[in-house]
From TrEMBL:
Residues 1-13, 46-71, 336-352 have a biased composition (Low complexity). It is a peripheral membrane protein. InterPro entries: PROPPIN, WD40/YVTN_repeat-like_dom_sf, WD40_repeat_dom_sf, WD40_rpt. Signal peptide: none annotated. This is Autophagy- protein 18a.
Amino acid sequence: MATLSASASASPPWLNPNPNPNPNSNRSPNFLPDQSQTLDFDSLMASQSQSPPHHSPTAASPGSSSPAAAAPPELTSLLHVSFNQDHACFAAATDNGFRIYNCDPFRELFRREFDGGGIGHVEMLFRCNILALVGGGSHPQYPTNKVMIWDDHQGRCIGELSFRAPVRGVRLRRDRIVVVVEQKIFVYNFADLKLLHQIETVANPKGLCAVSHSSDYLVLACPGLVKGQIRVEHYAQKKTKFIPAHDSRIACFALTLDGQLIATASCKGTLIRIFDTDSGTLLQEVRRGANVAEIFSLAFSSAAQWLGVSSDKGTVHVFSLKVNSNVPDHEKTQHSSSSDAAITPSSPSSSSRSFIKFKGVLPKYFSSEWSVAKFHLNEGSHYTVAFGLQKNTVVILGMDGSFYRCQFDPGHGGEMTQLEYHNFLKPEPETAS
């Protein structure tokens, strides 16, 4: 069930994230320009009377010199952390609310705190004032089977989506809301919360799902109905593509901004594969390591030149990609095997090409493509990686509240240089003005 309140905000409190206007620029705080002009809120149902009562949030001023000054003395528990669509900001869901941060320069933009109510998931929409919230923690602020559409300009929820099962994940586009439950994915129109599509998946407790952002049409990737399979929906083409990516269970995947490439990892965590989402062709395979690892996150750089990988081994890797979103069809060959140990990419790098003639003689390990650069962290901790706005930089977020900004040398590789570190759960010391 979906409900939407009868009022909407007029302008966002945040700056436009895209200083150079383009067809995908976020000109409206709520929806795409054509949708915001035609949306008739008077014809929609009001949700506030139907929603369960909740505590009013308290807010730290976005422009204050010490935004964390209002933080409670007790230690805040971090429940979820995620980047926005262009990796310029990130959101932290805590056991008493949520916080929004800018990545470069690092600073807390604002926070919303509830009286004992936890937020288990917060999803941003670029720098728009509209966010998606899901309750979480020991005392959820909202039911865990609901997605609340929060308008921070009004400081309240303006809509909600209800489900029969707990929500595992949410993805936002300017025109769509995608909600993930254990074995199903729902796609809604953002303007009126109308259900457009339902997709059945294998058990998906991690809420795995990815959507494109830079294109005018939606590309959606999710687990298929078979172990190791990726399902890709090309909505503009009305086309569904199934990719047998791995033999074992899918652990993580990520799309490029235009949705033309997808990087996948299985629960083994040794190999990362890059596929063309239209044809299903395997374009490249890289090796994280020889030992089994849990892959926490995968991230493409904006131009799909680099791929970042984080795992429970406490190392963030950066790989050089030999493919791009415009690989000619005649250079692609169809992917014909899904074995984690026997796939040879259709476009091998120069470093591995000399080993092709020894296929079946030398172990696959020796012909693997390895990372260009790496950064070492605490082993066992959960980290999420993304590429920074500055050239050859990565941003790393830890579930322990750590924020790292690092730089890698694309020519010499090796260990990355740490440029910045903060613990975003703790107040930073004030500096003299």
